[in-house]
Design goal:
Chain lengths: 257, 478
């Protein structure tokens, strides 16, 4: 088997709380290995630490790794800035993407693509790629002139995140509750576009707390997280059980905390 | 050299250190050796004589000097700003020669060199309607495309305006900014030199912006630009005054007076981006009158100067008049941008809007100072004020001094909104998570913040503004 894309061993983290001015422990020893060609779904109730895991990996300024190991492409990420991690191929589709007034989506996308590739991309080249991506995702060009996420509906924000994923071509794409706030049609569309992206050279880590995502995506691995740890892992069969019996039944009584 | 002088020189060197690297360049300033310092009736007479001015202009100047000498400094701002002005030590008039040039070939080499570095001739080839370039206090190069001349458009330096259209100017000068309006307007009225005179005949629409470049290039020079723009009935014009100053020593002083007249159904826009080096005191009085169904717009960018005090005003004199100000201020270390706008609704059915954006960093201070006045009888009025401040660190300052004075009750809508914000770590994190470096991320947020201003500019100005801000912000991330 090829070497892992992402390897977490006993990962512990804290988050800085501005309310209490304290570091609060979040991850309490996460072990996880992801290879290219895999689709991982990470489930768990609210507060189990799944979104935190994504932000710890992406380098959120308030999250800190305190113990354990996190390697991406074999390299420890602890001392890498978010932008370095992104340029190395990591991507996070935010649950709540930020709004930047006056920054047109098109300008932002070009800057991001150039940053990811660490080179200037001629306008013509960029436009060709962008047009192809917009076509593929069925997004209108009018979108490019709008300010980044300003006045976007929930669905538009999520589709914008997926558009970025398609353009930036990360090797590890993490999707943080991309399904939340979407109606059935939008959910179908967005996860169709997510599936389209997955291939043998990349991997997905799909974070959700609803099992309905499993209707739209076929994971190779399913993990259940609780209290800062991954407490159960399995393959497609686990997702099938969750699908049939429900999330809580699979975990047993402990799940209903 | 006295200790005090040594300190001043050191401070100036500090101020100029980055400026030199970023934008600075010198050209030979030999011609200054004959200029006189200070101001007196004799000097005024001499200036007027050199310029071969009509008697009324000399009288206007001398009266203004009397007013200037009898006026105190403005009291509404802390006086320390004015303490450093040494009126005796300023050159009130400096000329690069007696000639004016209509042909680029005739312009002296060192001046040409300066303009080439500013890209004037190239810009002209590309899209200028005409160039009125001010080198020192004198307009030395002036060119107006034939097409505009045929339409009867007048676009002259102010001196030539006095020579050729003195009677017309006499009807307008000081009508909006009287000599005694404020101390600096009085000084300008006494000592003015350079500036533009623009007249657009009825119904003429000038499609391309008229541009003027201003420069200060000598020690302790006072620049007193005087500009009058008249858009006659149904006329339309966009005038752009851009300026960039090279490095030089000691405090320089710029006090301009700009008067805009928009007749019925006219459209008049005045755009300026000032980028004086950070030892200049920039005190400009800008005022406009908007007649029936006309529109006046001030686009006002303030990046440079040590202290700027500038409040473009529109007097909405007749029904249907519209006034608009969009301004940005950027206050870096040691800078104070005191800018804003004034809208005076003197007639019913008039509308105005003010959008003021300021950015402060490295201890800079930006203030919004504005006035909305609705006179008795000015019913059916709508006015919106939005001022937003962005602080890039914890030790920079921003404040607002809005004055709203409404004397009419019937159908008057006044909106005032003010925000102060910081760039959140979360926002920067979001951009960084796309591979964008921190300094670029911050710049993207700042450019987005002032986008309401930049989108109003011709493209090359917008690009240049963004580039200047990038240079200003360089190395500011700790």
């Amino acid at each position: 088997m090829n070497s892992p894309l992402l390897e977490l061993k006993g990962l512990c983290s804290t988050v800085f709380s501005e309310d209490t001015d304290q570091q609060i422990p979040i991850l309490k020893g996460v072990d996880l290995t992801i290879h290219t060609g895999e689709i991982h779904v990470l489930m768990g109730v609210n507060g189990s630490g799944k979104s935190s895991l994504a932000h710890v990996l992406m380098g959120h300024p308030n999250h800190q790794i305190t113990e354990g190991e996190a390697r991406f492409h074999g390299k420890p990420i602890q001392d890498m800035e978010s932008d370095e991690r992104a340029r190395a191929g990591m991507f996070l589709a935010f649950q709540y993407p930020h709004t930047i007034g006056g920054l047109p989506v098109g300008t932002f996308l070009k800057a991001a693509v150039e940053a990811r590739r660490s080179e200037e991309v001629p306008f013509r080249v960029f436009k060709r790629e962008l047009d192809a991506a917009l076509d593929k995702l069925g997004i209108s060009k009018e979108f490019l002139g709008r300010s980044l996420n300003e006045g976007f509906s929930g669905g538009e924000k999520k589709r914008n995140e997926i558009l970025q994923m398609h353009l930036l071509k990360p090797t590890l794409a993490m999707l943080d509750e991309t399904d939340s706030g979407l109606d059935v049609d939008a959910l179908k569309k967005v996860f169709h576009d997510v599936r389209e992206y997955a291939n043998e050279d990349n991997a997905l880590l799909v974070i959700t707390h609803y099992d309905r995502v499993l209707d739209y995506i076929n994971p190779t691995h399913v993990h259940i997280m609780r209290d800062g740890r991954i407490v159960k892992s399995g393959g497609a069969e686990l997702s099938k059980r969750i699908d049939e019996e429900g999330f809580e039944a699979v975990l047993g009584v402990e799940a209903s905390v | 050299m006295s200790a005090e002088k040594a300190e001043v020189d050191f401070n100036v060197a500090e101020i100029n250190k980055d400026y030199e690297r970023l934008y600075g360049f010198h050209t030979n300033t030999d011609y200054l050796k004959n200029s006189k310092r200070g101001v007196s009736p004799d000097i005024i007479r001499e200036i007027s004589k050199i310029k071969d001015e009509p008697e009324w202009m000399l009288k206007f100047r001398l009266d203004s000097l009397d007013i200037f000498n009898s006026m105190p400094d403005p009291t509404w701002m802390d006086g320390s700003v004015f303490d450093e002005i040494n009126y005796e030590d300023l050159y009130y008039y400096a000329s690069a020669g007696d000639k004016k040039y209509n042909d680029w070939e005739d312009v002296p080499e060192d001046i040409k060199d300066t303009f080439e570095r500013l890209g004037v001739p190239e810009a002209e080839r590309k899209f200028l309607a005409g160039v009125s370039a001010q080198f020192e206090s004198e307009v030395v190069y002036h060119h107006l495309q034939e097409e505009l001349e045929k339409k009867g458009v007048i676009f002259l330096d102010f001196d030539s305006g006095i020579q050729k259209h003195g009677d017309l100017i006499r009807q307008y000068i000081g009508k909006l900014v009287p000599q005694g309006d404020n101390k600096f307007a009085a000084l300008n009225s006494a000592c003015w030199s350079g500036g533009s005179f623009v007249y657009i005949p009825p119904g003429v629409k000038v499609d391309i912006p008229l541009q003027a470049y201003f420069r200060i290039n000598a020690e302790s020079i006072g620049q007193f630009e005087r500009t009058i723009i008249i858009a006659d009935k149904g006329a339309s014009v966009h005038y752009i005054e851009g300026c960039t100053a090279p490095t030089y020593s000691k405090t320089a002083f710029h006090t301009g007076v700009i008067e805009l007249f928009a007749e019925e159904d006219a459209y008049l826009r005045y755009t300026t981006i000032q980028n004086w080096s950070t030892n200049v005191l920039n005190l400009v009085t800008q005022r406009a009158i908007a007649k029936k169904n006309s529109t006046v717009e001030w686009m006002d960018g303030n990046l440079g100067a040590k202290t700027t005090m500038k409040y473009p005003a529109v007097f909405l004199a007749e029904p249907g008049a519209r006034g608009r100000v969009v301004s940005i201020g950027y206050a870096n270390k040691g800078q104070r941008q005191d800018a804003g706008a004034k809208m005076i609704h003197g007639a019913p059915h008039t509308t105005s809007s003010i959008t003021a954006k300021s950015i402060s960093q490295n201890g800079g201070r930006s203030s919004y100072r504005g006035l909305i006045k609705v006179n008795k009888g000015a019913s059916h009025v709508k006015t919106d004020v939005e001022c937003d401040a962005l602080l890039l660190d914890d030790f920079s300052e921003s404040d607002t001094y809005p004055t709203i004075d409404v004397r009419e009750r019937k159908d008057v809508s006044v909106m005032h909104e003010a925000t102060v914000g910081k760039v959140s770590d979360e926002t920067i994190y979001y951009l960084k998570s796309r591979g964008i470096k921190e300094e670029d991320a911050l710049l993207m947020v700042v450019n987005g913040f002032i986008q309401e201003f930049t989108r109003e500019l011709p493209m090359e100005y917008a690009v240049e503004l963004n580039r200047l801000i990038a240079l200003e912000m360089e190395g500011s991330i700790g």
